[in-house]
Amino acid sequence: MQRYERLRHILRLDPEADFLEIYRLTATYEFPWDFARALELALYRTYAVPGIGRLLAETAELTDRTQKRYDDTALLLDAVVEHGFDSEDGRTAIRRINQMHRRYDISDDEMRYVLCTFVVMPKRWLDAYGWRRLTHHEQHAAAVYYRTLGRHLGITRVPSDYPAFESCLDDYEAAHFGWDPDARRVSDATLELMASWYPRLLAPAVRGASRALLDDSLLRAFRYGPPRPGLRRLVRGALQLRARAVRLLPPRREPHYARQNPEIKGYPGYPDGYRVADLGTFPGNEASEAAGCPVPHRRRQHG
User: Fold this and answer.
1) Which pTM value belongs to this model?
2) What are the Cα distances from residue 248, in Å, to 2, 21, 33, 38, 169?
3) CA–CA distance, 38 with 138 (Å, rounded to integer)
4) 86 three-class SS
5) What's the mean pLDDT in 12-23?
6) Is the pLDDT of residue 288 over 50?
7) What is the DSSP string of 28-77?
């Protein structure tokens, strides 16, 4: 297979009808490492909205159980990518996400903003550090994928295409990014988690490199000092050098899913694996436990 053969296949698909296949090929064959980093940054950005950051601090999931929360989030979101919206695992993942969110007073605007980060941040990451950029075809498919996910999560007024997702994200951040001490605690805990994935001697460098990747709006919101210009150039230059090297590699022949990432610490060590239904938190609230996907599904035929 030649380096751009899979892209040619993607471009022959219909981004409205084949959005899941396009998104899966893009995320698990073309850019699995980049998508993992971009979606980490997407979720991290949401802490800079004080209402979101405070709620995450109150639940203590991202301060006291940071690795488990990281694992559960990545595995639940990826179950839909891997298995599809109508599969048993995909439907179970969506039900678990809805059950957890509906325990709390989360506004529709906040849910919509989080959804926007999943669409916009991979594209922006790849613009800066990818071995190639996303095509408009792939952007369209990603927008349809998350438009569909938003419908399954019961989010209203979901943007219809990539430019609308991007405008929604930029407008929301301009209006809502701000300082909150609890949100800063969540941010610090997340940076510590990322540093913990590497040998202890490298932890200070990893924390510094992570902050060097933050844009000025995030640095201001969390009141982090600006990184040294030399460090920012070094980190970004290293990522761009990686992209040039990846471009020369043969294309991936097998998909790579989040459950295969070395950063997922909680589950690969289980000899019997994990069940999607067991991921996440279980608040013990009857209303939230009963919450499922608001989109009706046809009952699957057996036998």
Assistant:
1) 0.90
2) 11, 25, 16, 22, 34
3) 16
4) coil
5) 98
6) no
7) III-HHHHHHHHHHHHHHGGGSHHHHHHHHHH-TTTTSHHHHHHHHHHHH
Instruction: Write out the two tokens for 94.
Output: 């969506």
Is the CA virtual torsion 173, 176, 179, 183 positive or negative?
A: negative
Q: pLDDT per residue over 188-228, tens digit each?
A: 999 999 999 999 888 889 999 999 999 999 999 999 999 98
Angle, helices 32-45 vs 66-83, to 10°: value is 130
Domain residue ranges of the chain, discontinuous segments joined by +: 7-251
Burial of 29 (0-12, 13-18, 19+ CB in 10 A): middle
Tokens at residue 26, please?
């893009």
Beta carbons within 10 angstroms of residue 262's beta carbon: 7
Helices 108-129 and 32-45: crossing angle in degrees, nearest 10, is 140
